Amino acid sequence: MHSSLEQAKQRLLTEAAAYRESGPSSVVDADLAGHLLEVYYRHVPADDLLERSAADVYGAAMSHYKLAAQRPQGTAAVRVFTPAVEDDEWDAEGHTVIEVVTDDMPFLVDSVTMAITAD
User: Fold this and answer.
1) What predicted TM-score, i.e. pTM, was given to this entire model?
2) Which of the chain's termini has less CB crowding within 10 Å, N or C?
3) Average pLDDT, integer, range 4-29
4) What angle do CA 79, 46, 87 make, to 5 degrees?
């Protein structure tokens, strides 16, 4: 049984997939968008996601998807930017976003997190 937070997360993901229809641009078709959002956010705690708008949830996932789509196999793609609605169709409340796409590497997320938070 899903908790009320998980149900709210599911509603937000459904709204984000629907945003694709009303948003300024679409990266993928409607069926794929819903599936990608489910997979992309499956391990994100509901508490972390529910503070976001449907536009930001959709935009963050699709931005990362676009970066992955243009990455040559065997290389790493890294993008560091502060998204703005005017340019990127979503924002991160003024926060800088780091997108990383690479072949599977053990401990990559931990290593990147340590490098970013190091003094």
Assistant:
1) 0.84
2) C
3) 83
4) 30
**Rounded Cα distance, 20 and 30, in Å:** 7
Q: Could you give the 3-state DSSP secondary structure of residue 79? A: strand
Contact 54, 12 (CB under 8 A): yes
Helix 54-69 × helix 30-40 angle, to 10°: 90
Single-letter amino acid, residue 117: T
- Of the candidates 42, 52, 41, 34, the one whose C-alpha atom is nearest the C-alpha of residue 91 is 52
- The DSSP-derived string for 8-39 is HHHHHHHHHHHHHHHSS--SS-HHHHHHHHHH
**18 pLDDT exceeds 80?**
yes
Residue 25: predicted pLDDT: 60
Residue 36 has pLDDT above 80, yes or no: yes
- The pLDDT value recorded for residue 1 is 44
Structure token digits, residue 82:
């502060």
